[in-house]
Design a protein that fits this description.
Layout (H helix, E strand, L loop, with lengths): L1 H20 L2 H33 L1 E10 L5 E3 L5 E12 L8 E17 L10 E5 L7 E7 L12 E2 L7 H83 L1
Antiparallel strand pairs: 1-3, 1-6, 2-3, 3-4, 4-5, 6-7
Helix pairs in contact: 2-3
């Protein structure tokens, strides 16, 4: 019990007093709950727009496998993926600068694992993908080069199998941020409706209180007027009685 009183006096009470002295913390928290979902939605839209813009900078080319990867590595966390660096021969069409030709480039191909062998233990060290899409020497492979690096002179990255982004993560983020924004809007609408309802109830209660006070004041005035009239009548009656007594004494 002494420890409890010690904790309340030394830690809890100063913390409560500190929070009461800075009511702006509550306002900041409410403002953050209103602003953060909207900012998250804008950021997700910006990420989606940026990834889409990057994809638009790349053009599909014609590539043929020239050398196979020296090794295949595991990639991906949730979904098992396999990556390998292929050497490809990318052809380019004739232009006013150069005739038709080709260049040798390397690109990383990341493909999903079709069948996984998780090994004898539960560790990820002995996990191995036993079936996945791969290409042999001379096979055609879809590739995407930057539109400003047709001849590969600028050393811009060449993407194989797909564009720089499949936009799945971006769309998932946008959908999640949209759901959070909708929920935040619903909560804000409910809170505003509740505050407006409380204000209306308080205003109605205040109006009723004023009306009751006005009725009480009016009743008091009526009672005071009646008391004044009764006092005036009583004074008249007493004054009339005194005059009659005076007349009888004179007779």
């Amino acid at each position: 019990r002494r420890k409890y009183h010690f904790f309340m006096m030394v830690y809890w009470d100063p913390l409560v007093l500190f929070m009461e002295r800075i009511p702006s913390c509550v306002k900041v928290a409410k403002c953050s709950c209103r602003v953060l979902p909207f900012l998250g939605f804008l950021v997700s839209l910006g990420w989606l727009g940026y990834s889409w813009y990057i994809n638009e900078q790349y053009v599909e080319g014609s590539c043929v496998v020239d050398a196979l990867p020296t090794q295949y590595d595991k990639a991906g966390n949730m979904d098992p993926m396999v990556s390998g660096v292929y050497t490809v021969k990318r052809s380019y069409p004739p232009t006013h600068e150069r005739p038709e030709g080709y260049i040798i480039q390397q690109c990383e191909a990341v493909v999903p694992c079709e069948r996984m062998d998780y090994g004898a233990t539960g560790s990820q060290d002995d996990d191995m993908c036993t079936s996945f899409q791969s290409w042999e020497w001379g096979d055609a492979m879809s590739c995407f080069y930057h539109q400003d690096d047709l001849y590969g002179a600028r050393g811009m990255r060449l993407y194989c199998v797909g564009l720089p982004s499949d936009l799945q993560q971006e769309w998932f983020t946008v959908i999640s941020a949209s759901v959070m924004l909708i929920l935040a809007l619903i909560v804000m609408i409910l809170l505003n409706w509740r505050q407006r309802r409380d204000r209306d109830e308080d205003a109605a209660a205040e109006e009723e209180r004023l009306q009751v006070e006005a009725e009480i004041q009016e009743a008091r005035q009526i009672i005071e007027q009646r008391d004044a009239e009764d006092a005036r009548r009583l004074a008249i009656i007493e004054h009339g009685g005194e005059e009659s007594s005076n007349v009888s004494e004179e007779e």
